[in-house]
Amino acid sequence: MDIGVSGNYVNTFFPHEKEYNANERMGTVARVAREMVEATGVNIDQLLELLVKNAAAELTTYYYYTILRINLIGLDGETLKETAETARVEDRNHFEALVPRIYELGGQLPGDMRVFHDLSACPPASLPGNPRDIMAMLSVLVEAERCAVRGYTNICNQTAGKDHRTYDLSQAILNEEIEHESWFSEFLGEGPSGHFNRRGDTSPFVSKFLR
Length: 211
Known about the structure:
By secondary structure, the chain is mainly α. It has eight helices and no strands.
């Protein structure tokens, strides 16, 4: 599904727009920045599709992680709660950091939250049937992070040496997603990660995009 600046995209998600002129829209975004990216051979519409889908994944994961965190109770749950909360807050930060880049490149978010949810690059991190099963909870958390790692690795591979701003942003998010995966993997006993949970401010890599 096209999630760029094409007429089909707007007609699908913004049916009240009778006509859509991409060139006119470019008057409201970073025109030269977009042109420089296009000149390197990057398909902007395909890139925007990836960015929108990953933005949807971040916001929906933030929502589902909220439910997971609330249900982390008891001795085992409380042990994991702080780590899950850090990942939850940082996923929201990732969404906030992605949105400006989407609009800079001439894209936009769907007006319908239900559509946006269903565009997510990753499956819902839904509460398992037995919320007291800490291993099931951890499996949900680690698989959500692994999906994110794959997604941002793909964007980095497509933009390296071409779209410097998107690459820098995606690499920053990727660094945090890799740490999230490592935290939950360690809780599962898959091996030592060499990482510690955050102390102090969240999003050490992405924070520069939130200023």
